[in-house]
Amino acid sequence: MRRPGTAAIVIALTSLGLVAPATSATAAAQEYRCQQEWPGRDGNVRAWTDYGCDGNLLGVTPGDDRFWGDESGPFQTIAYKEASSVMNSGFVGGRDVVAFYYDKDYQYLNGYVCLAPGELWADNLTDNYFANRPGQVVNDRIGSHRWVTASECGAGSWLT
User: Fold this and answer.
1) Which residue blocks in the chain are alpha helix, DSSP H?
2) What's this model's pTM, rounded to 2 decimal places?
3) Judging by beta carbons within 10 Å of its beta carbon (0-12, 13-18, 19+), is residue 123 exposed, middle or buried?
4) What would the pLDDT profile of 67-84 be if each residue is shown by its tens digit?
5) Distance from C-alpha of 117 to C-alpha of 45, rounded to nearest angstrom
6) DSSP for residue 66
7) How far is residue 123 CA from its own chain's centroid?
8) At a CB cut-off of 8 Å and minimum separation 6, what does 52 contact?
């Protein structure tokens, strides 16, 4: 009677072994895709609909965009709360950090996150949370962005 229990444990452990490499492979593929998309320091921020800098390119700009859900600016209606990966290829120095906000008009209190120029990109926004908005995942929730200095970003606000 112990054999069925032992068999179940072996099957469970085997399946765990098969899941871990697939997860690692997915992360590696996302990282590779972002590396392919990296343009060098061209002064822009970018966002994509899918993880790993894949899917539709939602926008590219060296400037700010107060509302990703309107018909003006580089990030327009389709971009509103659709980003799953972002990139900071801005020039280093001064306002070289991109702050992404949950709401339009850079509303700090409703939640924000920052992407440092040295981080280059965040290839999967599902493992990041907005500062000032506990438990709110960043994925598919960006409403605006602007360029800021590192001192404007608090602890716990950095994208990885």
Assistant:
1) 2-37
2) 0.82
3) buried
4) 999 999 999 998 999 999
5) 10
6) S
7) 5
8) 29, 30, 31, 32, 33, 34, 85, 123, 124
